[in-house]
Amino acid sequence: MKSQHPTLSRVISTDYPSFIAVLFPVVFDIFTIYFFFTGNYSFQFFLPIAIVATIIGVPFLVKRYRIISSVFEAGIQTKGTVTNIGFFRGRGSVSYSYNVQGETQTSSNAINRNSHTRKLTVGQKVTVVVDRDDPKRAFIWEIYL
């Protein structure tokens, strides 16, 4: 398999947990900055929340990006089938089955609705990249690259 991995921006736009890891710190940072510069003392409430959201969100994003990148870089590529997909507003979930190491596995990912994930349909054949050490950890190639 050719060594490729998705960009950080693609991971954030496709992977819902990564998106949330960015969203919360950004929102609370904006509120804190706004209230600080407008002289509103509400910034004292938002500042600790912004700090905690950043302390939790940034390492989570880095870890999630490393996991996804490592699977794309060193994983096993196989064919799979989308078994379920559903969206509620801007977020959703995709489930898929695939064969790896002689066994049928199923996996799912929480995803954002974007131009790549909108194209998925139940029954669609996709390329799945599977973690060699944990065959249940997998990602759909087409929506991340």
In quaternary terms, these chains amount to: single chain
Taking all Cα atoms into account, the compactness measure Rg is: 18 Å
List how many beta strands DSSP finds: 5
How do the SSEs run, as a string of H and E?
Answer: HHHEEEEEH
**The CATH class of the largest domain:** Mainly Beta
Query: CATH topology of the largest domain, which one?
Result: OB fold (Dihydrolipoamide Acetyltransferase, E2P)
From the spread of the alpha carbons, the general shape counts as elongated
In the sheet with the most strands, the strands line up as 3-2-1-4-5
Helix amount: 40-55%
Number of domains: 2
CATH architecture of the largest domain: Beta Barrel
The secondary structure category is: alpha+beta
What features would you describe in this structure?
The protein folds into 2 domains: 8-72; 76-144, OB fold (Dihydrolipoamide Acetyltransferase, E2P) (Beta Barrel), CATH 2.40.50. The protein is built from 4 helices and 5 strands. The protein has helices at 8-14, 16-37, 43-74, 141-144, and strands at 76-88, 91-100, 103-112, 125-130, 138-140. Strands 3-2-1-4-5 form a 5-stranded antiparallel beta sheet. A hairpin with a 7-residue loop joins strand 4 (125-130) and strand 5 (138-140).
